[in-house]
């Protein structure tokens, strides 16, 4: 394992693929070119340029090795964030029942979280807030004011202002003076003024207050907003559904970011295979995943990974990762990494000793064959993910029956139910800024171009499952890839992670010989 540090780690740019421009991007272009209706004042223009100097987050000036020139965050320009807010307001406007009311939209950043006294968790920004601003600072609030009977709106970003004492301990802040220019908003104010500003704004004229009360990313802001709602007679709306329907369709810039994080995740899986052999601990494989992901450019893993040897893989969310791996066991790994808040999520299963035994091989080929067919169906039928789950159960049931693992005297719903018992989780979810992205977009919606979804069939056969022949018990297998929906064939973004039996057997245990390919 110590030779791991001597391995060369180079990730080249992900293979370029022509992806059809999304409906989302074309809508943004149309919005940016809309003419102001007669009789209305023109929307105040925002200057688009990245200020120099040290800010509260990396910029293209302070971290040119991370962010290309002219971009606010890696891969995404100020203009894209402005256009997202434009589109967001237009979409909310379509849901507004009364154009004669003012509309106040409040989107908070996440607050810092602490594991113990003065020991913070790694900060993770609220995805909705980040999607609209590109701001990575904790405790901020985006407020959008849309007056009645006009298409214009005002964006105000409340942030922690400069404070030399606090910055000595916690690092630099952007501050109000630079925040408006950096994040391309109309105005920036100190966060301490948010409560009075909101109260004054909603009490001046009748309005609708848009705020998601269910997801408390910042408890202090929840208290302020709920108190404002109690003290004033106004309508309330939840903006999150509109945001999730926007986020589920990825822009070209987001697709490139997803390609990068998926490539890093795939390479980390390959390295984990190369470092696997009998006697190695699950904890060590966990460390390999973390190390290679970070060295490849990810901030950290996307979630606590599953590294489950033998029968432990039948526990779908096993994350203890504290046992030794033994000869003739299979190892199931479910992992992913986060790069600029975009996440990969993939699973592979391989033999600890590098060679599939006959029974493990049968189960693995069933899962792999089903997964390949499900990816094809996504392109051919563009069906909702719930229907893809039904297809998975039918495929697994049929294949298991063909191998005499399930009895031949069952069919139809009984066969589907038997397959569901052996794979009780869903086959797919949306993927992006969150691992389970855009949860308000239900999985009964037909997939669309530029969605990214997982495809992850599995089989989990417990040691005490006497409905299955003994030689197949005590095994958990899952094969999961991240798939971009296009106008033609789906693109597997995690294709660099090997999954064919011959390729797996050629890598497992070969960490002294294996170098991550460019």
Task: Supply the number of helical segments.
Answer: 14
Major β-sheet annotation: 6 strands, mixed
Strand order in the largest sheet: 8-7-6-3-9-10
Q: Could you report the average pLDDT, rounded to the nearest whole number? A: 90
At the fold tier of CATH, the topology name of the largest domain is Creatine Amidinohydrolase
Rounded Rg = 25 Å
Given the helix and strand composition, which structural class is it? alpha+beta
Fold and architecture overview:
This protein is α+β, with helices and mostly antiparallel strands. It has 2 domains: 23-28 and 47-247, 3-Layer(aba) Sandwich (Creatine Amidinohydrolase, Chain A, domain 1), CATH 3.40.350.10; 252-507, Creatine Amidinohydrolase (Alpha-Beta Complex), CATH 3.90.230. It is built from 14 helices and 21 strands. The strands form 7 sheets. The chain has a 6-stranded mixed sheet with strand order 8-7-6-3-9-10. A 3-stranded antiparallel sheet has the order 11-14-15. It has a 3-stranded antiparallel sheet with strand order 12-13-16, covered by helices on one side. Strand 4 and strand 5 (119-120) form a beta hairpin. Mean pLDDT is 90; it is low at 1-40.
């Amino acid at each position: 394992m110590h030779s791991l540090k001597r391995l060369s780690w180079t990730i080249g740019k992900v293979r370029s693929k022509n992806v059809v421009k999304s409906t989302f991007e074309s809508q943004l272009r149309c919005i940016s070119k809309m003419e102001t209706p007669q009789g209305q004042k023109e929307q105040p223009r925002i200057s688009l340029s990245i200020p120099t100097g040290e800010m509260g987050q990396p910029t293209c000036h302070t971290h040119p090795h991370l962010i290309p020139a002219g971009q606010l965050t890696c891969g995404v320009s100020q203009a894209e964030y402005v256009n997202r807010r434009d589109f967001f307001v237009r979409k909310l406007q379509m849901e507004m029942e009364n154009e004669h009311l003012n509309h106040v939209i409040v989107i908070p950043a996440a607050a810092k979280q602490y594991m113990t006294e003065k020991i913070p968790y790694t900060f993770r920004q609220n995805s909705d807030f980040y999607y609209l601003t590109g701001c990575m600072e904790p405790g901020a609030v985006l407020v959008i004011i849309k007056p009645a009977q006009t298409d214009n709106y005002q964006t105000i970003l409340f942030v922690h202002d400069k404070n030399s004492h606090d910055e000595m301990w916690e690092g630099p802040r952007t501050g109000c003076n630079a925040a408006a220019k950096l994040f391309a908003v109309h105005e920036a104010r100190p966060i301490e003024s948010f409560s009075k500003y909101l109260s004054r704004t909603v009490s001046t004229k009748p309005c609708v207050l848009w705020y998601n009360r269910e997801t408390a990313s910042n408890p202090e802001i929840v208290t302020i907003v709920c108190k404002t709602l109690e003290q004033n007679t106004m309508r309330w709306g939840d903006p999150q559904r509109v945001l999730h329907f926007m986020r589920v369709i990825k822009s070209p810039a987001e697709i490139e970011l997803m390609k990068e994080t998926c490539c890093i995740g795939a390479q980390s899986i390959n390295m984990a295979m190369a470092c696997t052999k009998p006697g190695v601990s699950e904890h060590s494989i966990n460390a390999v995943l973390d190390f290679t992901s970070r060295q490849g450019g990810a901030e950290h893993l996307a979630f606590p990974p599953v590294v489950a040897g033998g029968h432990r893989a039948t526990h779908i969310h096993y994350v203890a990762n504290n046992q030794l791996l033994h000869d003739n066991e299979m190892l199931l790994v479910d992992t992913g990494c986060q790069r600029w808040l975009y996440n990969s999520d993939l699973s592979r299963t391989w033999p600890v000793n590098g060679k599939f035994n006959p029974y493990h091989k049968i189960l693995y080929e069933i899962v792999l064959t089903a997964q390949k067919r499900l990816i094809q169906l996504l392109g051919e039928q563009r069906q909702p993910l719930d229907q893809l789950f039904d297809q998975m159960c039918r495929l697994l049931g049929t294949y298991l029956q063909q191998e005499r693992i399930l009895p031949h005297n069952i069919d139809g719903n009984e066969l589907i139910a038997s397959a569901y018992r052996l794979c009780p989780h869903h086959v797919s979810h949306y993927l992006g800024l969150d691992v389970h992205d855009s949860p308000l977009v239900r999985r009964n919606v037909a997939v669309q171009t530029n969605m990214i979804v997982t495809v992850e069939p599995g089989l989990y056969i417990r040691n005490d499952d006497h409905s299955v022949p003994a030689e197949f018990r005590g095994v958990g297998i899952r094969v999961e890839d991240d798939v971009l929906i296009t106008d033609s064939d789906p693109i597997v973004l995690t294709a660099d992670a090997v999954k064919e039996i011959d390729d797996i057997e050629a890598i497992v245990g070969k960490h002294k010989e294996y170098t991550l390919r460019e």
